[in-house]
Design brief:
By secondary structure, the chain is an alpha+beta fold. Helices cover 31% and strands 26% of the residues. It binds zinc ion.
Length: 376
């Protein structure tokens, strides 16, 4: 028998919502959510369709977050079945978005439906923040919705993101944070000239070397229980005219730091300036923050997730901060507790993306268990 969660996942996978196209997925969610008393607000930013759906007017607010867009399929002939014609073979559901992350969204909706049926007068509010711009450039998606909510003073207390966090079985790993990422382009100026006249040149490579050495060996922090120490990696050094006998006029260096929650961009930028200034360089530096770190070390959301996972799978979940960035980076700065919990991630973005059918209902039960512990 096809469960409600499986059916909704199948219906969504059948929509070819290649990023940033939502392809009508959110309309399906709106129909289901309005039927159980959610107020659904479509927030369109350029070509990106976002949905903010909320049931209840009071806090605290538990928001499920996710995306309806999927990555491109890759060569169709390599798929065993059409990526947008969902197919079940041996208890496994195949299709683009099966694991990342239409099954999670289906599980969120059915969890809400069962919870609301049992607790029509629940405490606080339940919400869904759904974007169609997570897999692409992510400029008109979650970040803009959060800005709009912040502008009108609407706060999320707990955000549960349905990204595929699990490793072998659903619920075995929950992501409770991600490292931050900040990059710099450093240009060191010198004076170009003939190598035979060193007193008439100012060699930017010679000036760069000791400064870069100091930057690279600096101890930014020692990390903490959840994060490894912050690390700076120099990724590019470019200088020189190609000639043996010319001292170049400048050197260009790119470096990136993956940073823990023990430090922040301001401190990184200040410390770098102190190091560079010590070497009396003539330089320009351009910084770009590509993601803020977040960490939800403990709190009601972590506790509710651990208990719900234990109840429905029997296992003790592991908290981890590994992996690339996610939309959690946009939600966490508002002060919300943020967790990522979704299906097994071994096939995401791949040919023959899939999810274990039996685990869909387990995921929905876990989500419902979390709602019950927080708002029941
Ligand atoms: Zn995803």
């Amino acid at each position: 028998m096809t469960s409600a969660t499986l059916q909704l996942a199948i219906d969504m996978i059948a929509q070819p919502s290649i990023t940033p196209d939502d392809a009508g997925c959110q309309a399906m969610l709106i129909e289901r959510l309005q039927a159980i008393g959610f107020n659904c607000e479509t927030m369109q930013f350029d070509d990106v369709t976002n949905l903010w759906a909320r049931r209840g007017a009071d806090g605290p607010v538990l928001a499920f977050a996710g995306h309806t867009d999927v990555v491109p399929t890759g060569p169709l002939e390599r798929w065993q079945s059409d990526p947008f014609v969902p197919e079940i073979r041996n208890g496994i559901l195949y299709g683009r978005g099966a694991a990342d992350m239409k099954s999670s969204i289906a599980a969120m909706v059915t969890a809400c439906e069962r919870f609301v049926a049992e607790h029509p007068d629940h405490q606080g509010s339940i919400a869904l923040l759904i974007t169609s711009d997570e897999e692409g450039v992510a400029v008109n998606g979650t970040v803009k919705v959060i800005e709009a909510l912040e502008a009108r003073g609407e706060k999320i207390t707990w955000a549960l993101i349905g990204e595929p966090s699990s490793q072998h079985r659903v619920g075995d790993v929950v992501k409770n944070g991600r490292r931050g990422s900040i990059g710099a382009k450093l240009v060191i100026h010198g004076v170009q000239g003939h190598v035979a006249y060193p007193h008439k040149v100012d060699n930017p490579i010679h000036r760069a070397m000791p400064a870069l050495h100091d930057l690279a060996r600096h101890e930014w922090d020692r990390g903490n229980r959840f994060f490894p120490p912050t690390s700076l990696q120099i990724s590019n050094i470019n200088s020189g005219t190609g000639a043996h006998n010319v001292v170049p006029g400048h050197a260009e260096v790119l470096f990136n730091l993956r940073y823990s929650t023990e430090i922040d961009p301001k401190k990184i930028i200040e410390t770098s300036k102190v190091i560079l200034d010590k070497h009396e360089l003539d330089y320009d530096i351009d910084w770009k923050i590509s993601g803020y770190p977040f960490l939800t070390a403990e709190g009601e959301l972590v506790e509710a997730a651990e208990l719900a996972i234990k109840q429905h799978t029997g296992q003790d979940t592991e908290l981890a901060t590994t992996g690339g960035t996610s939309d959690g980076r946009f939600i966490a700065p508002t002060g919300a507790q943020v967790l990522e919990l979704g299906p097994v991630n071994d096939s995401i973005h791949k040919i023959d993306e899939h999810v274990n059918v039996a685990e869909l209902d387990t995921l929905s039960d876990i989500y419902q268990g979390i709602i019950e512990r927080l708002l029941g």
